[in-house]
Design brief:
Two copies of one chain form a homodimer. The first copy, chain A, is mainly α and 135 residues long. Chain A has helices spanning 3-10, 14-22, 41-55, 60-70, 78-110, 122-129; strands at 30-31, 37-38. In chain A, a hairpin with a 5-residue loop joins strand 1 (30-31) and strand 2. Bound molecules: zinc ion (ZN) (4 copies). Chain A binds a DNA duplex (30 and 30 nucleotides) through residues 2-4, 13-16, 18-19, 23, 32-37, 54, 59-61. Chains A, B: InterPro entries: CadR-PbrR (IPR011791), DNA-bd_dom_put_sf (IPR009061), MerR-type_HTH_dom (IPR000551), MerR_fam (IPR047057), Tscrpt_reg_MerR_DNA-bd (IPR015358).
DNA sequence: CTTGACTCTATAGTAACTATAGAGTTTAAA
DNA sequence: TTTAAACTCTATAGTTACTATAGAGTCAAG
């Protein structure tokens, strides 16, 4: 199949597929007489694997590692598991950062109501005068 | 004061300050005879304001809008308030996405233990065989 | 008068795409 | 058979908010 069909089957844009090839996530394929890329079912599988990983927010570099690991089926699982653990930890940290941020934003938001002018704006005042003015 | 002192006072890198100038978050300043940028206290204030906004994850474009608004003190607050509301909503959404993602990752992680080989890896199997294999 | 610390501009790199431009290829209808 | 539409190719630039150079100029102290 040609790249357009692969794109449709995997719900992935044509440019993204070419990008993944350049980034070594998909190996270079056969080409037709007219220099069009030709793919088989294995390519569909691989691209779907990549998409699932991206949905888990794994980076392209991490996915590249996973693909390499898949090619040595006798090796131990440790690396895969460690990658997952690290990744989960990062997501956890990010969630906590965002929860804190949300609280900051909500407090700030409460410092203003709609009927004010910019001059009286509680939000802008807080952001401006915070620690460094009026002692 | 020169750019290095401003950088120290605001805990902001010299390159970032120059970048903010290019992006119109800081206006172009006076220059010394030797073409060095010269700043006053107002610049310190403004840069600290920008930093606080960045800590709230506001984009440079949003901050640019806020700075513009600050310059028309008679106008109404609506725009500021609307920007905050939108921003809070985005953070909320992102938190929910990440919480879901975390659950996915945890389930996936549980499908493997350390003593396995890649071939038996529950994680890789799940990612590979998901919907599209085995009917 | 030279050394070192500072500053200047311009350019490239980061991550993971997305969006062109300009050219060639293939398929189908007219 | 011509021609038009639809597809594909490569190469390049843009996105965000910086960071990191290179190569040159400025300034103060010793
Ligand atoms: Zn990760
Ligand atoms: Zn307000
Ligand atoms: Zn926002
Ligand atoms: Zn495993």
């Amino acid at each position: 199949m040609k790249i357009g069909e692969l794109a449709k089957k995997t719900d992935c844009s044509v440019q993204t597929i070419r990008y993944y090839e350049k980034e070594q996530l998909l190996c270079t394929t056969q080409r037709s007489d007219g220099n069009f890329r030709l793919y088989d079912e294995a390519a569909v599988e691989q691209l779907l694997f990549i998409k699932l990983c991206r949905n888990l927010d794994l980076s392209l570099s991490e996915i590249r590692q996973l693909l390499t690991l898949k090619r040595s089926p006798g090796a131990q699982c440790d690396q895969v598991n460690r990658m997952m653990d690290t990744h989960i930890q990062q997501v956890e940290t990010r969630i906590q950062e965002l929860v804190q941020l949300r609280e900051h934003l909500k407090v700030l938001r409460r410092s203003c109501s709609s009927e004010r002018t910019i001059e009286q704006c509680g939000i802008l005042q807080t952001l401006t005068t915070n620690q460094h003015q009026k002692r």
